[in-house]
Input
Amino acid sequence: MLSDKFLNSLEIYVRRDIQYWSKWRPNNDANMWNYDNAFDFWYGHTIGMFTRTAIQVFIDMYDRKPSQLENKAIIDKINEYSGEYKKAFEHLK
Output
């Protein structure tokens, strides 16, 4: 499974990321990215980017790709934070 070292790194990253997004305000992004719903777009974008970042942290830490089981554990861990990310984007509704 995932090591405490990895999970702690993930936790630190999440806390900083949620703080950032809760204060962030979009510019004229809807025209550039062609979306209709800012909340859905930025929530989905951020969770996707966070997933990619978490996998890259794993690769950097262990010099290998996560196994299928580890990849699922990473995604499950990210899902635990989804409610906090949704709250961070409430101001976009």
